[in-house]
Amino acid sequence: MAKSQSTDQNKAFGWAANDKSGVLSPFHFSRRENGDNDVTVKILFCGVCHSDLHTIKNDWGFSHYPIIPGHEIVGIATKVGKNVTKFKEGDRVGVGVIIGSCQSCESCNQDLENYCPQLVYTYNSRSSDGTRNQGGYSDKIVVDQRFVLSFPDGLPSDAGAPLLCAGITVYSPMKYYGMTEEKGKHLGVSGLGGLGHIAVKIGKAFGLKVTVISRSSEKETEAINRLGADSFLVTTDSQKMKDAIGTMDFVLDTVSAEHSLLPLFSLLKVNGKLVTLGLPEKPLELPIFPLVLGRKMVGGSQIGGMKETQEMLDFCAKHNIVADIELIKMSDINTAMDRLAKSDVRYRFVIDVANSISSA
């Protein structure tokens, strides 16, 4: 029997985790009423991000149950407030990782809402009025128009959904850290999962030479023949790692498990940049000697602001970049989470929400 959070008029339905077991089950709750600046979205598809798994399991220690995950949302605008100018009913739209910010701080004024001190995440968060926010494993969502994205005609709703997190997570550091300024630069992509496989595609579209860095050769053929990588480097092959020392201008580290950074630093040229995107449960050790002796840089990055996210979607539509997905029903979500924990997905699960969710 589905559990219930409240019974007001704006009823909604989704699948929620109620404790750190992470098991998701049917859940009735309420969305806020559509305000003057809001867009109500009927959810069609929602990607399954590794952050969803971490959050429902409370791996990071700040989960507040019940939680409906999901921040790679594509749907149809079904209602717009009187002040909404960017969208109309019937538009196909996207909602990503964030749904609110103060809209007045330095970061917000620079279109960097994702770094606002009062950032509001799509789920496992509260809005300024105290409302608990729930994510896209549900039938609808209500969002301020500033945090709604126009979904380009050239992008399919299902395979395009993961771009709203995975896509912008790799696109933003490529832009910020200068990876797109000169074609032919050498980019290493560490980890070939949900983030990594999109990084390969976007990197190639920017004219970079792309090498996938992985612990095993299991994905080598598909990385090169299917995703378009130029080469594949196995970290357990000591000779190939030795040959690759000092050959890369940039490395994007997408690995979310505990791992050593030292081998990645060795691959960088002088002035090379290592950018970490994964969020391991425990801190990683930062080796200082290779940083100092090679004048190398380590940095981080998380998603992007709304302007840049729209730019990314338009870029991906222009270059026919989408995620490689496995489309699942809502009822299959717990099996999908078990598989995701084992990295058993090529390369992103996407829930066919509209055709498989039911409040019955």
Explain briefly what this protein structure is.
The protein is α/β, with parallel strands linked by helices and 360 residues long. Helices cover 24% and strands 27% of the residues.
Architecture overview:
The longest helix has 13 residues, at 306-318. The protein is built from 12 helices and 20 strands. Strands 4, 5, 6, 11, 12, 19 and 20 form a 7-stranded mixed sheet that branches. With 360 residues, it is α/β, with parallel strands linked by helices. The protein is globular. The mean pLDDT is 94.
The amount of beta strand, in percent, is 25-35%
What is the CA-atom radius of gyration, in angstroms?
20 Å
Shape: globular
Question: Which residues form runs of ≥5 with pLDDT under 50?
Answer: none
Taking the alpha carbons of the first and last residues, their distance comes to 9 Å
DSSP E strands, number: 20
Q: Biggest sheet: strands, sense, closure?
A: 7 strands, mixed
In round numbers, the mean pLDDT is 94
Helix/strand-derived category reads: alpha/beta
**Helical residue percent band:** 10-25%
Q: Helix count?
A: 12
How would you classify the quaternary structure?
Answer: single chain
What labels describe this entry?
single chain, 360 residues, alpha/beta, 6-stranded parallel beta sheet, 20 strands, 24% helix, globular
Which SSEs are present, and which pair or pack?
Blueprint: E1 3-4, E2 11-17, E3 24-30, E4 38-48, H1 50-56, E5 73-80, E6 92-95, E7 98-100, H2 106-109, E8 120-121, E9 125-126, E10 132-133, E11 140-144, E12 149-150, H3 157-160, H4 166-176, E13 186-190, H5 194-205, E14 209-214, H6 220-225, E15 231-234, H7 238-243, E16 248-253, H8 262-267, E17 268-276, H9 288-293, E18 297-300, H10 306-318, E19 325-328, H11 333-341, E20 348-352, H12 353-356
Parallel strand pairs: 1-3, 13-14, 13-16, 14-15, 16-17, 17-18, 19-20
Antiparallel strand pairs: 2-3, 4-5, 4-11, 4-20, 5-6, 6-12, 7-8, 9-10
Helix pairs in contact: 4-5, 4-10
